[in-house]
Amino acid sequence: MAWNIDATHSHATFAVRHMVVSTVKGHFNVLSGTVNIDTANPASSWVQAEIDAASIDTNEANRDKHLRSPDFFDVEKYPKITFKSTKVEPAGDNQYKVTGDLTLHGVTKPVVFDVEYSGEVKDPYGFRRAGFSGKTKISRKEWGLTWHTLLETGGAVVADEVKIEVDLEAVTKA
């Protein structure tokens, strides 16, 4: 059964080391998509999601402007970030490995999310809701996000490894 991602109750966040000593975190404000849940046969489950790259928000306007520029996301040329699953595998109680194609900055590569399924409930308005939390790590350079400056000490201003977390709430008619 297909469920719509409830964007008002879902989050796509990222974290990357900055100047070796701290971590910058951010999120995207606009996301959408569909999830198909088949608890009896998880291999039949799938997810398709889309993020508006220009909706990036790190709580610092100048940094967000730079991240939207051709140095990073180049949102004029690549306005969407997408994920389309290709495989869902059980990995323990309510745990799954969700493999899929992540398209970012015009580059598509496979990634694997470690996902926890939180279950489902019926809300007071007659809808069914389901929750998922997923994590993965990527090399930003593999997706063409290659802006790079070194510190005098030799460390990078922006690290290559990016941690990605998604918390999705999906909704369907009861």
Number of strands: 11
Tell me the quaternary state. single chain
**Major β-sheet profile:** 8 strands, antiparallel, barrel
> How many domains in all?
1
CATH class: Mainly Beta
Strand order of the largest sheet: 1-4-5-7-8-9-10-11
Sheet/helix structural class: mainly beta
Number of helices: 1
Uncertain segments are: 149-156
Structural shape: globular
The N- and C-terminal alpha carbons lie at a distance of 11 Å
Query: What is the alpha-carbon Rg in Å?
Result: 17 Å
Mean pLDDT, all residues: 88
The CATH architecture would be Beta Barrel
Examine the coordinates and then state which fold CATH places here, giving the name of the CATH topology.
Answer: Lipocalin
Strand residue percentage:
over 45%
Could you give the order of the helices and strands?
Answer: EEEEEEHEEEEE
CATH level 4 superfamily: Lipid/polyisoprenoid-binding, YceI-like
How helix-rich are the residues, as a percent range? under 10%
Secondary structure: elements and pairs:
Blueprint: E1 2-5, E2 11-18, E3 22-28, E4 31-36, E5 46-52, E6 56-57, H1 61-68, E7 80-90, E8 95-104, E9 107-122, E10 127-139, E11 158-173
Antiparallel strand pairs: 1-4, 1-11, 2-3, 2-11, 3-6, 4-5, 5-7, 7-8, 8-9, 9-10, 10-11
Give an overview of the whole structure.
The chain is built from 1 helix and 11 strands; from the N terminus they run ββββββαβββββ. It has one helix at 61-68; strands at residues 2-5, 11-18, 22-28, 31-36, 46-52, 56-57, 80-90, 95-104, 107-122, 127-139, 158-173. The protein has an 8-stranded antiparallel beta barrel with strand order 1-4-5-7-8-9-10-11. A hairpin with a 2-residue loop joins strand 8 (95-104) and strand 9 (107-122). The chain is globular, with a radius of gyration of 17 Å. It starts with a strand and ends with a strand. Residues 149-156 have low confidence and may be disordered.
